[in-house]
Write a structure and sequence with these properties.
By secondary structure, the protein is an alpha/beta fold. The chain is built from nine helices and 15 strands. The strands form three sheets. Strands 4-3-2-1-13-14-15 form a seven-stranded mixed sheet, with no helix packed on it. Bound molecules: fe (ii) ion (FE2) (2 copies).
Length: 349
């Protein structure tokens, strides 16, 4: 009888300790779309993307992030490089390795080889397996031989980094390289097996392409904007909902931090480092809540002025809702700046 009591006490202590040791709070930063292009590379310019400033902007963001106390990790939501050039991958590794905490990347549409075509003079770009291979372990979160992964980033807190990229084939009808995405059948099977295994844990999803549209043109395919969100978004959202996932972080859309709740899942977008409005976001998360604060990347005033000027001048990113009138300019800025949500918090059900 006494032995039985001791066994029960041990079991109770173990059960209680497993409850107590789940993460109670994590602090992390999300950055996206650094599009690193070293200035020595031929043809790099400051347009809508501040090509010549990408190294400086990412370095400045990282040195600010290093000042944040009690930070646990950093998420990097893809479009790591201009177009998967080996020298740009090396440069980004050098900058991100300057972080004092582990970081986790996913691949964007710009992080895999271009299919050569007459419109693009591209000397070298690497396969996505080679790019992913440069970000293994603590320096990026990747695992050998794969382009997606699951990592425990806190007690009972799992980060799943997805690969939404696909070959950048030139599409003549759009006069663009295909910048769209999907999660293929093999990755869907892997994702379900990981979600099943971690059903009692909190799961964060990191992805480059979005799982939801952000404005009308994304739905109507204005300027091929259907490629901002993955082809099989509904299928992926249904799978995430089935396993109780609450949080998705994406990049690619180049708008400032904001979220929408769809099917009980909070979809957060991460602002770009390389285009206006260059920002990063600090998150504090508990199993029941999320709090965030968005910060501008420190840069000289002339860089901010240039970024804003080139942003206003860009026709492609405006879309039908933002004509080139004073009112259209205002709405265009409001949409991409999303200044009403520089700080916020929410509670999970
Ligand atoms: Fe991008
Ligand atoms: Fe992208």
């Amino acid at each position: 009888m006494r032995v039985l009591n001791i066994v029960w006490i041990i079991l109770l202590v173990l059960a209680l300790s497993s409850l107590c040791f789940a993460f109670d709070k994590v602090k992390f930063v999300a950055i996206s779309d650094p599009h690193i292009s070293i200035p020595q590379q031929k043809g790099v310019t400051d347009g809508y993307k501040l090509g010549l400033k990408t190294v400086m902007l990412t370095e400045n963001a990282i040195s600010e992030i290093n000042k944040i106390p009690d930070l646990n990790f950093v998420l990097v939501a893809g479009d790591l490089t201009q177009d998967a050039e080996p020298w740009n991958i090396d440069e980004l590794r050098r900058i991100l390795d300057g972080l004092k905490v582990p970081y986790f990347v996913v691949l964007g549409n710009h992080d895999l080889s271009l299919v050569p075509h007459e419109k693009k003079d591209q000397p070298v770009s690497l396969s996505k397996y080679t790019v992913a291979g440069a970000f293994i372990g603590k320096s990026g979160g990747m695992v050998p031989g794969m382009t997606y992964y699951a990592q425990e980033v806190g007690k009972d807190l799992v980060l799943i980094g997805l690969d939404t990229s696909r070959a950048q084939v030139f599409v003549p009808e759009a006069n663009l390289n295909d910048f769209g995405g999907r999660i293929d059948a093999g990755q869907m099977r892997w994702l379900e097996s990981v979600l099943k295994k971690n059903q009692n844990k909190t799961v964060i999803i990191l992805t480059h392409h979005n799982l939801v549209p952000w404005q009308e043109g994304d739905k109507t395919n204005h300027n091929a904007w259907r490629w901002f969100w993955i082809d099989n978004a509904e299928e992926v959202r249904a799978l995430l909902k089935k396993y109780g996932v609450k949080l998705v972080f994406s990049g690619h859309r180049h708008i400032s931090t904001r979220y929408q709740k769809v099917d009980d899942i909070y979809h957060f977008i991460t602002p770009p480092l390389s285009t206006y409005p260059m920002r990063y976001t600090i998150y504090e998360m508990t199993p029941k809540s999320l709090k965030w604060e968005v910060k501008d990347v420190p840069a000289p005033q002339e860089v901010w002025d240039l970024a804003r000027k080139n942003f206003i001048a860009n026709k492609w990113w405006r879309g039908p809702d933002h004509p080139e009138t004073p009112e259209g300019n205002q709405k265009y800025l409001e949409f991409y700046e999303s200044n009403w949500t520089m700080k916020g918090d929410l509670t999970f059900k």
